[in-house]
Amino acid sequence: MQGSGDAENYTSPRTVVTGLPPARVRAAHAAHLEQALGAAVATARQILDARDSAIAEGERGFYLDFDVPADHQSALDGLENRQKKIELVAVKPPVDGEETVRATVFVPEAQADYFAAKVEQYRAEETKSGNPKNQNLVARIDDVRLSAVRSLFTDDGALYPPDGRQAWWEVWLRDGKLPAFRTVAERLNVALKPHLVSFPERDVVLALADPATMARLVLHSDAVAELRAAKDTPSFFLDMRPVEQAEWAGDLMDRSTAPGALAPAVCILDSGATQGHPLIAPGLEPADQHAYDPAWGVGDSAFWNGHGTMMAGVALHGDVEAALVTGEHLDLTHRLETVKVLPPNAQNAPELYGAVTEVGIGKAEAQAPRRRRVFCMAVTSSVGLGRGRPSSWSAAVDKLCYGGGDSRRLMILAAGNIRDPIVPAEYLDGNDLAEAENPCQAWNALVAGAYTDKIAINHPDFAGWDAVAPAGDLSPASRTSTIWDRQWPIRPDVVFEGGNFAHDGINPAEAIDDLQLITTHYRPAMRLFDSFGDTSAASALAANFSAQIMAERPELWPETVRALMVHSAEWTPAMRAWFNAAGSQAQKAALLRRYGWGVPDLGRALLSALNDATLMIEDALLPFRREKSQIKTRDMHLHHLPWPREELLALGDQDVELRVTLSYFVEPNPGERGWTRRHRYASHSLRFAVKRSLESLQQFRQRINRAAQSEEEGDIGAAAGGDDWLLGTVRDRGSIHSDIWRGSAAALAERDAIGIFPVGGWWKEKPGLQRWDRSARYSLLVSIRAPEAEVDLYTAIENRIAVEIPAG
After folding, report:
1. Helices and strands in the chain, H and E counts
2. Helix (H, G, I), strand (E, B), or coil: what is residue 494?
3. In 582-727, which ranges are E strands?
4. Element (H or E) spanning 702, and its range?
5. Is the peptide bond prior to 343 cis by the omega test (within 30 degrees of 0)?
6. What does the CA dihedral 357, 363, 367, 370 come to, rounded to 10 degrees?
């Protein structure tokens, strides 16, 4: 497979043999094919020799294109020999006016001379009946050439991406080749969608690449059988007649199992919901619908364009489009609750926001007091913004999350959307200047921003239009905390799909259907599907994600569910490119405030792979003590990490990654008095520090004590500086902290302890309020990843954990 993507470089001229005697026709045809095969194989070997061995996986091989007359397609079966691992991978049928069919065959390098031998037998040998050997195959091959990546593209040629432009490809993989393909994609920094469609002989994944990068993917693996254009189909569903939409919705419900009686819930605080929608009814009981004011009713309203029903569809089903087209049986792992906190025909008064939120939550909990739930609120306001300074509404959210004692709540908030027209030339700069809206200043909630992978515009009405955001980057309307004062939390925490905008190069951008998500319409009698996007859609997906964690692990604390979402998140290649180019901690901090910790991965959140082991600790400490008339710092927890020392030392200089995430809830300051050091907003703060390779435990404790003292004196992040951490001092904002250390496996073997320690807050600085003796809960996640290692780290760690990891 040559790397330029230009198939024409290897086209051999077809030999004209009309009018010659049969023997000479046979000899001329054989000579032509032998010459074409020889040239193709020689070029293929040169290209294979130039492959990067650090990238390549799988068996060395190449692809050949065979031209066969359209009326002799039966000959195609003879191109395959499974015993020799020669596989017919793609057939491109003739278009109008063409007389030949092009077939693409994968040939292992070890079988490079297979077809030349067939042609030689055809030229020189005969069967017992006097016919040339292999006649049924060779005589029907008009031409042969080395394939280009375009040869594997079996879709409409007009859909082939232009040179240099990234696009999502459907990559059809040969049987059993998925792991190798994923490895090569990771090495080439090619983004893959997590979902997979499997058929008896093919696995289908979605990959983001331009044609040249796709050619490198094909060259460095033996995995690809076929390529097609990935086609998001929102407009396909949205343009349907209502009766057709009903058929698709009915099929989905026939394939779905309703949530069980003990299932957790996503409680949506919004404009109500249409419970009778066929895609919502299985997950929403009428008794679980509430309203702040009973006079409002619990149904959705036209004033809010059915926003609550839109939220409900995504919160229950996640990616509704994927659910419609998958054809698989689906188990709904959680149910819905709705609380109407928006009046049906007006706005709430800003001073009521906190009270309305609290009353709405109380009504849902009174109906089902023992049910586990995540609260989701995409309602935001531009009133009360102050570069991250807490508002009465955000403080109310923090109070609700903190709860007191063991009664904690997980809340998902939307970062808010840019309401002004989206100007493509201002993309990202405009996002960085648009601060996340009230109540995103809350420390304890998880705030969801929006990114997008949607770049394919298929609708003919928008031919020639371009997507505003490149794949994997921030959704054009998503707000950030880039301009917030540095002491306030990082917002968003994570990002989920929020759709894209398109533009014609002249006018402001539009949110067209092709680049949006699909969700449920609030008037199902008119139509069942609607388009949806921005941070509302992202927050609904985040709620769906967290509810799935709760369903799988019902014993986990809300702090832990929040930690898992952040810990499982990764920056997309587009985001990572920005971080890689950042030259200073200030630039990294700005990017973190744009993207948060990236896009969460549910599989990573729920499982530890063999080379990606995660330790999870839920614990509590007493942060302060009274000594005479003063309140001083009290406890530090030292967790010994059960690293497989021998296995890590055996890996030596091989690169490994250590990730740590610390999550806890704070009690908010009861009064707005500036939140200076003496009037801090947070009741307390916690920090983590990891023992260094050449550090004794005693030296580690001393370093932590010095860091705690430095923080008391105003040096935020004193424990996080240096030592090859990706974020370092940037990470210690708010009440969730996550960072990544990269180094050698041998160095990690000695980094076998992590300390959790408190720093000041108003519990300490306001002794008269009698909070200094309260316990502080926290969740700690620690994982090691060795992507290139063949050592089973998970099992090695599991064998070392005979009892719960001790805290000292």
Report:
1. 22, 32
2. strand
3. 612-621, 624-627, 630-633, 637-640, 655-663, 685-690
4. helix 697-712
5. no
6. 40
Least confident of 207-216, 643-652, 668-677: 668-677
Mean per-residue pLDDT over the chain, rounded? 89
Q: How confident is the model at residue 18 (pLDDT cuts 50, 70, 90)?
A: very low
* DSSP 3-state of 639: strand
Are the C-beta atoms of 412 and 535 separated by less than 8 Å?
A: no
Instruction: Give the model confidence (pLDDT) of 272-282 as tens digits.
Output: 999 999 999 99
pLDDT band at 11 (very low <50, low <70, confident <90, very high): very low
**Residue 439 confidence (pLDDT) above 50:** yes
Tokens 């299932």 correspond to 263
Checking 690-698 for CB contacts under 8 A at 24+ apart, the result is 690/658, 690/660, 690/741, 690/751, 690/753, 690/754, 690/755, 691/750, 691/751, 691/752, 691/753, 691/754, 691/755, 692/723, 692/750, 692/751, 693/747, 693/750, 693/751, 694/750, 697/638, 697/753
- The Cα 33–Cα 31 span in angstroms is 6
Residue 663 has pLDDT above 70, yes or no: yes
How far is the first Cα of the chain from the last one, in angstroms, to the nearest whole number? 58
Instruction: Kindly provide the residue ranges of all beta strands, DSSP E only, lying in 370-433, ordered along the sequence.
Output: 373-377, 410-414
d(CA 469, CA 454): 9
CA trace torsion 473, 479, 482, 487 (10° rounding)? -130
Strands 612-621 and 776-785: antiparallel
**Whole-model pTM?**
0.88
Asked if residue 505 has pLDDT above 90, the reply is yes
SS3 555: coil
Round to whole Å and give the CA distance between 375 and 360.
10
Answer for the pair 753, 645: CB distance below 8 angstroms, yes or no: no
Count of all residues that appear for the chain in the document: 808
* Cα separation, 531 vs 537, whole angstroms: 10
Measured N-to-C along each axis, helices 307-317 and 534-552 cross at an angle, to the nearest 10 degrees, of: 40
Residues 6+ apart with CB under 8 A from 374: 264, 265, 266, 267, 410, 411, 412, 543, 546, 547, 550, 558, 561
Q: What are phi and psi of 101, to 5 degrees?
A: -110, 135
Q: Is the pLDDT of residue 10 over 50?
A: no
